[in-house]
Each structure stands twice: as C-alpha cells, then as structure tokens.
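Hi support team,

I submitted a single chain yesterday and got back a structure, but I'm not sure I'm reading the token output correctly. Could someone confirm the output below corresponds to the sequence I sent? I've pasted both exactly as they appear in my results page.

Thanks,
R.
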Amino acid sequence: MTGPETLDVARDAIWTIVIVSSPPLVVGLVVGVIVSLFQALTQIQEQTLIYVPKILAIFATMLVALPFMADSLHAHMMRISSRIIGG
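Hi R., thanks for writing in. Yes, this is the structure output for that exact sequence:
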C-alpha cells in the first residue's frame, strides 16, 4: 500500500466517523441549547437538569438513526474489504 492509498483510507475512515456520529451530536447540541435557554428563562440553576433530556434525546436518535449508521459502517467495511482483496 502506497502513501496516497493510506491517506485515502484514513480520510475515508475519518469521514465515515463524522457521518456516523453527527446525528447524535447534533441532537445533543440542540437539546442542550434548548434546556439551557429554558434554565435561563426560568432562572433554574440546577446543573444536573441537562443530563436526563440529553440522554433521552440521544437514545431516541440512536434508535431512529441506527439503520443509517449501520449502513454507513457496512459500506465503509465493504470499501476496506475491496481494497484488501484488490491488493
């Protein structure tokens, strides 16, 4: 395997990680901002209030996005396998 091929595989792996991890990260960010705004508006200063809604939202997102995430990882593995087989 040459240097450019190694960089291509690494770039593809990093891009796959970004694509697979983005749905839960975006939902966690949005829920965090909404809960923070709610805390600021109601002047509730409980530090642990943000964790339960975030965990529930990320869990629900994982259930919904799991087929997409699995397909992305499967496609990445097939690309890696074809490179291994192709030499």
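A quick pointer for reading it: The mean pLDDT is 93. Let us know if anything else looks off.

Best,
Support desk
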